[in-house]
Specification:
This protein is of the alpha+beta class and about 150 residues long. The chain has one domain (about 1-145): Alpha-Beta Plaits. About 35% of the residues lie in helices and about 20% in strands. The strands form two sheets. Strands 1, 2, 3, 4 and 5 form a five-stranded antiparallel sheet that branches. A two-stranded antiparallel sheet has the order 6-7. α1 packs across α2.
Length: about 150
């Protein structure tokens, strides 16, 4: 199972999330969604709060193929970078992060899994756990069978 987090803090935030989810759904069968959460910017100052949602889907694609697909969806919504020229975070129309893939640990220049800030960001971990709970209700497995080992 692939878990992504979609965030936006510019423009029509609900519409941005909807467009991103439509892009994901055009490629993958979404198995579960979290509720939308609102949060303060993380790692930079901004007057614009974020809306975030977590989605889960299964795929035979490699993690880097999923990353390429998520980046294509981001670019279809906004070609603007979510980083400033100095590398610091910036406001953004859309940001899609792969936060976790069941059974995958990866550390490459393009992608690290699990996401290195998964536990640091409430807007990542809380929707992630909510999706796990919803998947449990769907497939009858215990949360522990889907839940990642945190803190290891």
């Amino acid at each position: 199972m692939v878990y992504i987090n979609i965030g936006t803090n510019l423009g029509d935030r609900h519409s941005n999330l909807r467009h991103a989810l439509e892009g994901v759904a055009a490629r993958y069968n979404i198995a579960a969604l979290s509720d939308i959460v609102e949060s303060e910017p993380w790692g930079f100052e901004s007057a614009n709060c974020f809306l975030n949602i977590c989605a889960a889907f299964e795929t035979a694609d490699t993690p880097l193929q999923v990353l390429d697909a998520m980046q294509q969806i981001e670019r279809s919504i906004s070609p603007a970078s979510h980083r400033n020229p100095d590398g610091s975070y910036a406001d953004r129309l859309i940001d899609i992060d792969i936060v976790y893939i069941d059974g995958v640990q990866l550390n490459t220049p393009r992608l690290t899994l699990p996401h290195p800030h998964l536990e640091d960001r409430d807007f990542f971990i809380n929707p992630f756990r909510q999706v796990q709970s919803r998947l449990k209700q769907v497939d009858g497995q215990s949360i522990e069978q889907h839940q990642m080992p945190l803190g290891d």
